[in-house]
Design goal:
Layout (H helix, E strand, L loop, with lengths): L3 E6 L3 H12 L4 E7 L2 H11 L3 E5 L7 H11 L2 H4 L3 E6 L4 H9 L4 E4 L4 H12 L7 H14 L19 H9 L4 H11 L4 H8 L3 H15 L4 H11 L4
Length: about 240
């Protein structure tokens, strides 16, 4: 794997230094800078154009969502798109979790994530995939069920719709909708269960679970389980 250039934008000094230290121990990751405010973070992003930016959503001078939006608006689209965003949020504030999910970031982690999982999220995000923390998936799913409306109003500058399905995905699902059993499996995927745990919960074989998962990925045009979970949550597929 090529050398990954990363930046960290996080106002909590201990968290920022800890992430930087751990990332710098990896042979193929180079932390090219860090910042503790959104203003400094925006300048850092514009100057370094990193492969990965780990951004805290709750910065003191501007929330992480606005920061990412300003960065993307300030750069040519093709340049801005080269920087993948991992959004960090606190799972104790549900509105912030929803804001992180709705922000359009590439991946979503809670701040209490173990470093091994953050590293997994970083590598997957660099490869062009999305990574979503099961904690965030559960909170988003709970709110979708409670609200049952097409948008979630967040305490940020604008209301961000989280129910959205790509036209191609929609046409595929319309022609070949998920079965009742596939919906059951999908819900458990969203909640972060492994194939073995899904098999145990539904009293089916591992082989059957793999068949259902493969079918779900095909119907959602997803390349892996995490992407399927994000598509399902954003599209409001689960009641």
């Amino acid at each position: 794997m090529a050398n990954i250039r990363a930046v960290i934008i996080e106002d909590h000094n201990l968290t920022r230094v800890g992430i930087r230290s751990c990332l710098n121990e990896q042979k193929n990751i180079q932390v090219v800078g860090d910042a503790e405010t959104a203003a400094a973070g925006l300048e850092l992003l514009q100057n370094t154009k990193p492969d990965i930016a780990i951004v805290d959503i709750d910065l003191p001078d501007m929330d992480g969502i606005a920061l990412v939006q300003r960065f993307r608006q300030s750069m040519p689209p093709e340049t801005a798109a080269q920087t993948k965003i991992i959004m960090l949020t606190s799972f104790s504030h549900e509105k912030m979790v929803l804001a992180a999910f709705a922000s359009g970031a590439d991946s979503y982690c809670v701040k209490t994530i173990k470093f091994e999982l953050l590293l997994e999220a970083l590598y997957m995000t660099y490869e062009g995939y999305s990574w979503i923390d099961p904690v965030i998936a559960r909170i988003v799913l709970k709110h979708i069920r409670q609200l049952k409306i097409p948008t979630v109003k967040l305490n940020i500058a604008q209301t961000v719709p989280i129910f959205a399905l790509d036209p191609e995905q929609a046409s595929i699902l319309e022609a070949n909708p998920l079965t009742e059993r596939e919906m059951e499996v999908l819900e458990l995927i969203v909640q972060g269960f492994t194939n073995q745990e899904i098999a145990n919960k539904l009293y089916i074989s591992m082989g059957s679970v793999k068949v259902y998962v493969r079918s779900i990925l095909n119907k959602l045009s997803a390349s892996h389980r995490t992407q399927a979970a994000i598509i399902a949550l954003r599209a409001g597929l689960l009641n």
